[in-house]
Write a structure and sequence with these properties.
CATH architecture of the largest domain: Roll
Mean pLDDT: 85
Number of helices: 4
Radius of gyration: 43 Å
Subunit structure: Homodimer.
Shape: elongated
Helix content: 55-70%
Protein name: Protein GrpE
GO molecular function: adenyl-nucleotide exchange factor activity; protein homodimerization activity; protein-folding chaperone binding; unfolded protein binding
CATH class of the largest domain: Mainly Beta
Pfam family, one: GrpE
Main location: cytoplasm
């Protein structure tokens, strides 16, 4: 084919009525549009599901980080608990030794000095002795070992302390062993 023949053929195609090609497109278009719309809806749903999954994963990660931080803070806060709990009988024995020694003397002064030094170290670590005498009995803080009928004290009041209780910061590490007043 020569160049002229090709040009004439192109002109003939260009002069074809616009409706003929458009009609052909319209017959194919509704089916294709419906398929495309379904595909778009499917992709939008898939995108929404993946977005929700990503948000859940981020929330899970943030919750994990928060729990890990809280556990780490808790461990640091009470890191000395084992050591302090092991030293509580030593404190009890120091207090018994002080009660058994006379009012004055070098032995008593030496024991008092060591006891004060030990208590200062433990206080800095967060040990707090419970003040129970005359307080109302609380089963979360106290262990009742005996009940004493009395009219002198209100009922459910701590009359005597057999063994001191202790807190480590805000946590009870040993409840106090106490005698509780009851009414006759």
């Amino acid at each position: 084919m020569t160049q002229m023949e090709e040009d004439k053929k192109m002109e003939a195609n260009e002069q074809e009525p616009a409706g003929a090609g458009a009609a052909q497109e319209q017959t194919q278009e509704p089916g294709q549009l419906e398929q495309l719309q379904q595909r778009i809806n499917q992709l939008e749903q898939q995108l929404a599901e993946e977005k929700n999954a990503r948000l859940r994963a981020l929330a899970d990660l943030e919750n994990f980080r928060r729990r890990a931080r809280q556990e780490r803070e808790e461990l640091l806060k009470y890191e000395a608990e084992g050591l302090i709990t092991a030293l509580l009988p030593v404190i009890d024995n120091f207090e018994r030794a002080l009660a058994a020694t006379g009012e004055e003397g070098q032995l008593r002064q030496g024991v008092e000095m060591i006891y004060r030094q030990l208590m200062e170290v433990l206080t800095r670590a967060g040990l707090i002795p419970m003040e129970c005498q005359g307080q109302e009995f609380d089963p979360h803080l106290h262990q009742a070992v005996m009940q004493v009928p009395t009219e002198e004290q209100p009922e459910n009041t701590i009359v005597d302390v057999y063994q001191k209780g202790y807190y480590l910061k805000d946590k009870v590490i040993r409840p106090a062993m106490v005698t509780v007043a009851v009414r006759n």
